[in-house]
TrEMBL record:
Assembly notes: Forms oligomers.
Gene Ontology molecular function terms on file: DNA-binding transcription factor activity; transcription cis-regulatory region binding
A biological process term (GO) from this entry: negative regulation of DNA-templated transcription initiation
Pfam families (UniProt xref): MraZ (PF02381)
Keyword Transcription regulation attributed: yes
Main location: cytoplasm
Domain SpoVT-AbrB: 7-54, 83-126
Organism classification: Bacteria, Pseudomonadati, Bacteroidota, Flavobacteriia, Flavobacteriales
Tagged with keyword ATP-binding: no
Name of protein: Transcriptional regulator MraZ
Length: 157
């Protein structure tokens, strides 16, 4: 799977459907036939849309966990809570189940935000709050997370 790029806005219709933005739909075209998995985010009040091939890779990792270790079993249960297989319909719409709408606080305006190989789906107000930086210094975070990585000779990282 290629890296997904971009942040896009849309609105929720009365039935809880989101119109997939055309540039995002184009990037996900190879995944449309196989479908997607929609789940709660572990760390944020948003949803994560996994192309099925990415979900299968994640499940390969999860399946390596020993289920006779209680923490592993608890993690698996929480990680997969509310997981739904979803499709993008012929008109390019994604129906978000009511329980996931409630979890994410999606009301009217929505943001699709690329997150490397998946797409985060946010209520717009919650997304804006999460990226505002009020609760962290992004420069410090970037240095801590990426500062010690230097795999290439290009001087970037």
């Amino acid at each position: 799977m290629n890296t997904i790029v971009g942040t896009y806005e849309c609105k929720v219709d009365a039935k809880g459907r989101l119109m997939m933005p055309a540039p995002l739909k184009k990037q996900l075209a190879s995944s449309l036939q196989n479908g997607f998995v929609l789940k709660r985010s572990v760390f944020q009040p948003c949803l994560e849309l996994y192309p099925m091939e990415e979900w299968d890779l994640m499940m390969q990792k999860i399946n390596k966990l020993n289920r006779f270790v209680k923490k592993n079993n608890d993690f698996i249960r929480r990680f997969t809570a509310g997981v739904k297989v979803v499709e993008i319909d012929a008109l390019g719409r994604l129906l978000v189940p009511k329980d996931l709408v409630a979890f994410s606080g999606i009301a009217k305006d929505v943001v699709f935000s690329s997150a490397v190989n998946i797409v985060e789906i946010w209520d717009k107000d919650l997304y804006e709050k999460s990226i505002s930086g009020e609760d962290m210094d992004f420069a410090d975070l970037a240095e801590e997370v990426m500062g010690n990585i230097n795999d290439d000779d290009n001087g970037i990282s």
